[in-house]
Amino acid sequence: EALKRDSLLWVAYYYRGICNKNLFSLKKAENDLLASLKIKPTLAESYVELGEIYHMDEQFQRAVTQYEKAIAIDPQFVHAYYNLGSISLQKGDVRKGLKYYQKCNEIDPNFPKPYMMQGIMKFKARKKDNESIPFFDKAIEADSTYALPYFWRGLAWISLERPSEALQDWNALIRLQPENYLYTLLRACLYIELGDYDNAFNDLRKTIR
Length: 209
What we know:
By secondary structure, this protein is mainly α. The protein is built from 13 helices and no strands.
């Protein structure tokens, strides 16, 4: 309706593009964002959104080009660096991915996702479970409502044979995402390992409702 009244309203193309992206209508989203950029070519956010469309479609080089355009406009645009890090990992370039994640937290020390990704990278490296913990700590310190670091830190504690600490993290995880029954099932298994069969039974019962 807004575009019927004003075909040069870039913000309408921009937000319609985001809506189409969220609905996985990637071609429509691409067309909308390209239209938005044609009218307002200096908006870094549009390049990141367009990059994410290509990223979702596994057109990695096209995505990289858009993220780099965003950074050229706004060198502090942390989400562009984060997405570049994710693409680097997908392409198997761990060192490059790490550099991008470190750049994210250099720009924004309160951005939790890059800390978590660095923790996961340490966790997946052999015999570095203990080194992963501080990164998960930083992610949680940056945003205590961000659920995933509790999951990964719990796995790290289990790998380090410290199930009681894992239980504390997974209790926090389930408080944040009580509807995720996979987490409840994992906690039930942990209760069994700890010999707490009553709580294990309670969790198992929740997962089969």
